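Recall the central idea of this unit: under ordinary conditions, the amino acid sequence of a chain determines the structure it adopts. In this exercise we apply that idea directly, starting from the sequence alone.
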Amino acid sequence: MKDVIIIGAGIAGLSAGFELYKNNIDFQILEPENRVGGNIETLKIGDYLIESGPNTFSSLSKETMELIKELDIEDLLQEANPKAKKRYVYQNSQLMPVPSSLKELIKTDILSKDAKMMLLEELFIKKEEKEETVQDFVERRFGREVLKNFIQPYLNGMFAGDVQKLSANAVFPKLKELEAKYRSIVCGMFLSSKFRSSFKELTLYSFIDGMETLSNAIYHKLKNKITLGAKDIEISRAKDFFIVNFKVNNKTINYTTNSILFAMPTYAMSEFAYLLPKNYASEITQIEYSPIATVVHAIDKSTVEACHGMPLDGFGFLCTKEAHRKLLGTIWTSSIFPNRAPSDKILLTSYIGGALNKKITDQSEEEIASLTAKEVAETMQISDVNSLETVYIKVHKNAIPQYNLGHIEKVKHIEELMDKNYGLFFTGNYLSGISINDTVKASRKATEKIILYLNKFVRKQETLVT
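Accordingly, the structure predicted from this sequence is:
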């Protein structure tokens, strides 16, 4: 009898397994694919090191940094180039630097004088306690220009979402807390030491051999506790435990277990909805995901510098919403991590699609690569689109969970379900944050609930039997 069966070996399942391992809990991770890591995937293609999924994490990622220390892989960390901190927004047919200080905000042309005045007027706008969309929240407090030129591009990079549907309470909880406490967000930013500390000087990290270093390190630690290629997983409930059947290389294997931890995207959980009470099943399985294509291009450094008249000096750019544009943004990968490409080349990682361009998944990879190259060339003023060599493309049909209106209530219900002692638990980036660190944090929280459940009910019953 296992204590826990974990379904999924992405970073959610792996980090949960590591927590259980540290607490001497008997578990097994079942992963349908033949690799671990989920969306964390690093590839070596020719002379290029490419990330299909997440590219970086920050020094403020407390739980992730603790995990790295416990795995003893700190020496494999790679710090992002400190000269590549500038962010740009593509607006009005030009790349414009995002202001990083009050002085730069006053001088920036991203906002008009009227929009800047509205930032001062925010001090006098009354707070709103009900849940509202990002669009309603930002327009009410800061105006349409801030929404269009700052927030929409930012959310292109984070959620690839629709500001008319995303919940401000779920996406910007810290800003809503400032509004609730200080009435004015601008005022709260200055008065809240907690808020200011969350934006202190941070460092971006990856690993020398890419982000997959993290998931591979956990895999090697837990190798005997992970079953890859687990197909046709079936779960049935007995009186007070679960029976799990699956196949590996067409051979049937089964386990009995005290609890199940689902560490998989919600759309993949629909086949297990019969295990959930009816009033919870739809809330969990119907969370929307946005599609994104990752497209990686390489180009001669001399070509880019000739077009720009200077080297690329930043992290990359995000695009404002325009009817004809499908490109969400581009990371200047080799500017951030110079070892990812030969010294005479520039590596660009672009993202296209999102909640407003779902039909991107209807196009072929060749069409997506061509469209992305065209829009990257346009935004970066590269005269010859053919100078962009397509190195890699991957279409993620269900890339990022959307924290739309009602999301916080859904998460409360999922937490409630985990506390009902059914032996069913959940973790993933669809709960309270989409970053790697948010996911690691969610997995820690889930394992704490599992251990409490095991100690309170299972161990107690075992003691009574003996």
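Residues 96 and 109 are 8 Å apart (CA to CA).
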